[in-house]
Amino acid sequence: MYLSPACADPVVIADDFSRTESGSLGSNWTDPGNAFHINANTSQATNRVAWSGTKITFYNGADVGTASFSVQANLNTTGTEPTRFVGLCFNVIDANNYYFAQVRKSGGLVQVMKVVNGATPVKIIPDFSTGWTGGGLMKISYDGDGFYNISIGGTTRVFTDSAPHIGGSVGLAFSYVFIGAGAVWSNFTMTSWSSPVTISDDFSRTVSGGLGPKWVDSGSVYHITGNAAKAVNGAASNEVKVAFCNGVDVGSAAFSLQANLNTADTVNTRYVGLCFNVLDANNFCFAQVRKLGGLVQVMKVVNGATPVRVIPDFSSDWTGGGLMRISSDGAGSYTITVGSTSVHFTDSVPLLGGSAGLAFSYVFIGSGAIWTNFSLTYVCPQEHQVIYRNAFDPSGSLVNWTGYGYNSTAQSLVLNGNSIIAYSMPATDIAKARGCLLIASGNYTTNVPTLG
Q: What whole-number distance in Å separates Cα of residue 347 and Cα of residue 334?
């Protein structure tokens, strides 16, 4: 059966605080410290001579889950004391476990902190200065794959946490003393996206030639028999042949695909594998493995030309049957697993977006190439594009985005379409730099912290 669920619409929660409440934010909010109230169509820190520590309030029933989300609000403060901060909280599991980001008027200093089991907050990244002078937007986005970015006062930071809070709600935060309207929030919005969708095919159907209408098989070399996809008998097929999911485009989103592969053929030229980033029948990547020595190749075809290697061939412990899995961050960084062997690689000029499917090379007679339990998982690409576009540029412009790489030599990251590609980055830094998908735009600047 071929299953292809539709992408879900994002969930949007918004509060402009344009209502009258008696000493609180109302029933939609949890305020453990009774520290927030509504006044003049804004949320404000309740008057008090001395607030100590951090106070948060979070939206009831909101759960960002494991997928992408963003939270933002306009922040204002008139307090210039160096201990007074206003900000947002996120991944709020409960009143004792959450993150918060906060900014002060003095120097535009920003802190990103984490609270675990009610203990003293700890810094996630070093404090940094911005151009924020007491009023303006703070926005925090999460890419669904472990990486966050924060944008405020014309400055952005990308960060991650090795032991993260997952899911939870979002809301408002402030720290230490605020008198009167010293901490003010307006136009709060949270947007969260669905969990990734999975297209799967167990090939448990009868088709008269081919794989059916959900697949594109331009060479007419695949068929279904015995609840498996197989290469059609052929006397000579001296090139790679692919079949890919029809009407699918992973866009700039992260994705993974996998299938169980089998072959009994020990000829050294005969390979079975998967294709990915398939733009059309003449532009695609593929990975393939042969039974002889478990040799794996990762190749790319551009404009129908002879395949070229993306990385050197490598040996695995695959002996003729088992899982192949390929995952990508959506920007040219990949990991392939064959048997128990995993290799991380990147492509400096990647094919981006497109579909995915099956691949084999050279002659296969009878059931020499077999695929079962194929699946492709990705987050709807328009969701990631919204986050990537708006994280640092409220106008939505995709023009003149630039950035800096992970390491001290400032390797470059360049926007291509809706994705940012890493160039000339040392292999040891690729995994650490993969979170640097959202870096800077226009006058925005950044220094990417060490991502351990």
A: 8
CA pair distance 148, 161, nearest whole angstrom? 9
At residue 357, what is the residue type? G
Q: Please give the Cα distance from 147 to 26 (Å, whole number).
A: 32
Convert the pLDDT of each residue in 53-98 to its tens digit.
889 999 998 888 776 788 999 999 887 788 889 999 999 999 999 9
Q: How far apart are CA 79 and CA 74, in angstroms?
A: 16
User: How many other CB atoms are there within 10 angstroms of residue 407's CB atom?
Assistant: 15
C-alpha distances out from residue 93 to 30, 60, 129, 288, Å? 12, 11, 28, 43
Whose structure tokens read 């106070």?
55
Please write the tens of the pLDDT for every residue from 195-240. Answer: 667 889 999 988 777 899 999 997 888 989 888 998 876 534 567 8
Percent helix, percent strand, percent coil in the chain, to nearest 5: 5, 45, 50
What is the pLDDT at residue 108? 93
Read off the pTM: 0.52
The helix (run of H) or strand (run of E) holding residue 12 is strand 11-15
Cα-Cα-Cα-Cα dihedral sign, residues 136, 125, 159, 178? negative
Token digits of residue 266? 């020990």
